[in-house]
Amino acid sequence: MSWRLALAALALSCAPLSTALAQEGAAGWPAKTVRILVGFGAGGGTDIVARITADRLSDALGQQFVVENRPGAGGTIAGGVAAKAAGDGYTGLVISTGHSVSAVTLKQLPYDPVKSFAPVGVLASAAYVVVVPKSSPATDVKSLVAYVNKGAGKLNYTTVTPGSTQHLIAEDLRQRTGMNAKHLSFRTTGEVITALLRGDAAYAVELIHAVRGQVQSGDLRLIAVSTPKRWPSAPNVPTLAESGLKGFAYSGWYGLLFPAGTPQPIIDKTHAALKKELAREDVQKKLEGAGAVVSLSTPAELGALIARDIGNFRAVASKAGIQPK
């Protein structure tokens, strides 16, 4: 037997052993505390979803799942720590749509947004909305386009932070409708809302729960949601696709990743626990309080979603001339 054949035979003989070891390790997992990294500060949407998830996994799997906030650089600091961690199931990362956005708007990442991680699944989804002041003549997308274009470039649309998810969705909307509006950006959602109430902007794109109070008071009005289907808390508000923009669909989402190389049995065990725990009514109500709904996906679906969003956002940014920083 040649040395090449001998090596091939050795590799084949070791494969069942490595699989068995992985399965054995997963059977005893978790045997200690699991840390769940979050790339943003406490109290935000990603942090809330992560803490609800960690709490339920702790109960389901018999070990503590502890959230560790590593804010900064658009969530990429935590991503870099998670990507470099051992793929043993003891470090996880809860991400949002911003994970895909960062791949487009930042020049250098300390990880590959797809290859550096093993997806577990989407945990929950949120809705982005197009919102206008109560004084606006716009009651739907068609009348908003007419109103903005009547202003001949004198009107603004507003979002948080250039290159944010909201900005890219709003820019996609502007590109598809041909609205002649300028971008007015602010650091916080509160400033975005103030700009709308002051009349400094014709419309904004923001998460639905972020403007919920002003919508309920009647100061702001929703005219469309970005999600593929109508949003449960706003069933009378049409989607952008229903409003004439065929194929326009963006969901805010939160997902769980492990480092690449994490054994599949650990991923499967985690997913099975999530499937059971996220079906609980009390858990769903907690997520709804944070403006999210349970949307557990398969690992493969989360991986495909990340890649698809990166492609969509890259195309929008390129057309708008938004350069990575």
Structure description:
By secondary structure, the chain is of the alpha/beta class. About 45% of the residues lie in helices and about 20% in strands. The strands form two sheets. Strands 2-1-3-10-4-11 form a six-stranded mixed sheet, with helices on both faces. The protein has a five-stranded mixed sheet with strand order 7-6-8-5-9, sandwiched between helices. Strand 1, helix 2 and strand 2 (about 65-70) form a beta-alpha-beta unit. Helix 4 packs across helix 11. The chain is globular, with a radius of gyration of 22 Å.
Number of helices: 11
Looking at how many chains there are and whether they match, the oligomeric state comes to single chain
What is the element string, with H for helices and E for strands? HEHEHEHEEHEHEHEHEEHHEH
Spatial sequence of strands, sheet with the most strands: 2-1-3-10-4-11
Shape: globular
N-end to C-end Cα span: 56 Å
> By helix and strand content, what is the structural category?
alpha/beta
Q: What's the mean pLDDT score?
A: 92
* Helicity range: 40-55%
| Biggest sheet layout | 6 strands, mixed
Query: What is the CA-atom radius of gyration, in angstroms?
Result: 22 Å
The percentage of residues in β strands lies in 15-25%
What is the β-strand count? 11
Q: Provide the low-confidence segments as ranges.
A: 17-22
Q: Tags for this entry?
A:
single chain; 325 residues; alpha/beta; 6-stranded mixed β-sheet; 5-stranded mixed β-sheet
In short:
The protein has 325 residues and is α/β, with parallel strands linked by helices. The chain has helices at residues 3-27, 45-61, 76-84, 98-105, 141-150, 165-177, 189-198, 212-217, 264-277, 281-289, 299-320; strands at 34-38, 65-69, 91-96, 117-126, 128-133, 156-160, 182-186, 203-207, 220-225, 252-259, 293-294. The protein is built from 11 helices and 11 strands.
